[in-house]
Write a structure and sequence with these properties.
Distance between the termini: 81 Å
Oligomer: single chain
Mean pLDDT: 82
Largest sheet: 6 strands, antiparallel
Low-confidence stretches: 268-284
Strand content: 25-35%
Structural class: alpha+beta
Helix content: 25-40%
Number of strands: 11
Order of helices and strands: HHHHHHEEEEHHHHEEEEEEEHH
Radius of gyration: 27 Å
């Protein structure tokens, strides 16, 4: 049987449900993005009373863009204006005070390695534009560091280069438009979880094979649009939501951070018979107890399930430019500037149209 089949069904339905519930907020965020990027569109002067013929003009004033750039510049200057990271380390135990400076150097080195300044700066822009940003981590990756040391070679000192491999923590900033939180929750603590979705190429999905991931080959197999697939391929496509998970030669890659019923997670173990080559047996939980997990999905298939200790800090950090009461989504500079942006567009379009009529001679045809 397919690994994690029960979990795949559950999370596929959950992602579709949360995606549909986020649609109204997504429209607001897309308008914020269009205002920030100065993209003219229908309705960008809505509510100003200007005639439709005048609102159709392509002129779009960058009021929102200027306000976002000004606001984020002030925040980033307060964070990094002195050229250092915006934090300090002091020991709670006086006996450990001599080690605080060393510890600060280590933390600074780790943050610089993960480009944490860029993450904070980009997160500030996301908050000002969409009102909300989501940072994920810490994750762990292997890193190597080279250093030179003095080595005694039969009484002769020599300088040699050594390489040290270690686990390096890092964070990632998710695009706010690609995050789907629990629609019933008002805060991250109360949420069942959230999905962070990206689009991967088949080669990116296949690169995960051999790292503890399952169902990689099935997930990377793009649906055949030429009609030459076999009957089993067509049967498999009925199980998966093909239109949702595959588009334009790319595969939807989803990461779920949250809780699921233990009955939905199967642990693949060796066949109890002990016969070589026998298929693994799926062992399901015997209750609907909610457990914390991180799940990796692609193409509608669950590739990996990792259980997370609930006593540890959440791997999702949600930050808002301006908190809205009892709302998961915050309010940013762009949304606060909706009225000003529309009025400015309407005013300048009326001005340019009137100017054109005044400068060009009018003609009457009988």
């Amino acid at each position: 049987m397919m690994a994690y089949e029960n979990c795949s069904y559950y999370l596929d339905g959950l992602l579709n449900e949360w995606d549909m519930a986020r649609r109204p907020q997504e429209l607001t965020m897309l308008e914020c993005y269009q205002d920030f990027m100065r993209i003219a569109r229908d309705g960008d002067t809505k509510g100003t009373g200007v005639a439709k013929t005048q609102t159709s003009k392509p002129l779009f004033m960058g009021v929102t863009r200027s306000k976002i750039r000004s606001a984020t510049a002030k925040v980033n200057d307060s964070l990094f204006g002195n050229g250092e990271m915006p934090f300090d380390i002091s020991a709670t135990n006086p006996e450990l005070e001599p080690f605080s400076d060393t510890f600060e150097v280590i933390i600074n080195g780790q943050l610089e390695a993960m480009d944490f300044r860029d993450i904070l700066s980009a997160g500030t822009v996301a908050e000002a534009t969409y009102g909300t940003s989501f940072t994920f981590g810490p994750f762990v990756r292997k890193a190597k560091k080279k250093h030179t040391k003095l080595q005694d070679n039969y009484g002769t000192p020599m300088m040699v280069e050594a390489e040290h491999e270690y686990d390096e923590p890092y964070y990632e900033l998710g695009n706010t438009l690609d995050v789907y939180p629990d629609p019933a929750a008002r805060t991250m603590k109360a949420a069942q979880g959230l999905f962070w979705v990206s689009m991967f190429t088949p080669s990116q999905v296949l690169a995960l094979e051999g790292e503890g991931y399952k169902n990689v080959q099935e997930a990377a197999k793009m649906p055949d649009s030429a009609g030459i697939e076999t009957g089993s391929d067509r049967a498999q496509s009925m199980r998966a939501n093909i239109d949702y998970w595959y588009k334009d030669g790319r595969i939807k890659f989803a990461r779920y951070f949250g809780k699921i019923p233990s009955s939905k997670v199967e642990q693949l173990e060796a066949d109890v018979s002990g016969d070589e080559g026998s298929a693994p047996v799926a062992q399901y939980g015997d209750s609907d107890e909610m457990i914390s997990v991180v799940v990796i999905m692609a193409g509608g298939y669950v590739l990996k399930v990792t259980r997370v200790d609930e006593s540890e800090r959440s791997m999702v950090l949600r930050t808002c430019w301006e908190n809205a009461l009892d709302e998961m989504w915050g309010v940013g500079v762009a949304e606060n500037n909706f009225s000003m942006q529309r009025v400015t567009n309407a005013a300048f379009r009326m001005y340019t149209e009137s100017k054109g009529l005044a400068l060009n001679p009018t003609k009457a045809v009988d």
